[in-house]
Design goal:
263 residues; 9 helices; globular; membrane; transmembrane helix; Membrane-anchored protein; DUF347; transmembrane
């Protein structure tokens, strides 16, 4: 999709600058989403539907607070990301397993939903760049795309891990390799930065899920055998430490100028 930026209204974005720290915290958030979602649906036996409703409610409240905020607030932003990835975990499990459409059906349905949101966002706003996320309408599209990308990433992770007995280790290698390719394309090509951002955003979700599996899988399966609540607490602590240590500021994002120059 062409990343032409038609709007000249680029006030300070309400999403953080995309740096290495952004991706580290993003992977931690997706890991927390995996272990937190499984804690509620499996450890606490809520089931996929009830867990999905719980996290959907939390996500709606946080997205509304994010949109009402007048400027970028790191804690609010990352809490909303955690809510979206936790909802994505339970929603993907519900679509794949409870609806009976399987991994292929679930991933295809979510890919269509994500494409529709991005396509509508581009048609109305003229860009799907995160640099434009400074108005309520753009934020609504942004969080819709974020939610579907998180859910799609979960479905892809489950699909790869459970297909051909690849397991979480094989899945982690595949998604890490995919992210390495995206990093290479970012460093050494002029491939659309907007496209690379969304591709990386999707792939970091299943990578985080495999890290979550590593934390709570039994020792004889190569994991650390942490309970899901304990794994969630460890990752939440790591996230808080990262937010305290890694500078958080609103984007302008890397690649924005080059994207604008190509417009």
């Amino acid at each position: 999709m062409e990343d032409t930026i038609k709007s000249s209204h680029f006030s300070e974005s309400k999403v953080p600058e995309v740096t290495l720290g952004f991706w580290i915290i993003k992977i931690a958030a997706t890991t927390l989403g995996e272990t937190g979602g499984d804690t509620v649906t499996m450890t606490l036996n809520w089931g996929y539907l009830a867990g999905t409703c719980l996290f959907l409610a939390a996500m709606v409240v946080l997205v509304a607070a994010q949109i009402r905020a007048q400027k970028f607030h790191p804690a609010l932003y990352w809490a909303t990301i955690v809510a979206s990835t936790t909802f994505g975990t339970t929603m993907a499990d519900f679509a794949d397993r409870s609806l009976g459409i399987g991994y292929t059906g679930g991933a295809t349905l979510l890919l269509i939903c994500l494409a529709l949101v991005l396509g509508l966002w581009y048609r109305i706003e003229g860009t799907i760049s995160v640099n434009s996320v400074s108005t309520p309408r753009a934020e609504a599209f942004y969080w819709g795309a974020i939610t579907f990308s998180q859910t799609l990433g979960t479905a892809l992770g489950d699909w790869i891990a459970d297909t051909g007995d690849m397991g979480y280790r094989g899945g982690a290698l595949i998604f890490a390799a995919g992210l390495a390719v995206i990093a290479a394309l970012y460093l050494w090509t002029r491939v659309s930065r907007v496209t690379l951002f969304w591709a990386a955003f999707i792939l970091t979700r299943p990578l985080g899920a495999t890290v979550g599996d590593f934390l709570d899988k039994p020792l004889d399966q190569g994991g650390l055998a942490l309970s899901r609540p304990l794994a969630s607490a460890v990752i939440a602590t790591f996230m808080v430490a990262c937010l305290l240590l890694i500078p958080q500021r609103a984007g302008q994002h890397p690649g924005a100028n080059r994207a604008a120059e190509r417009a």
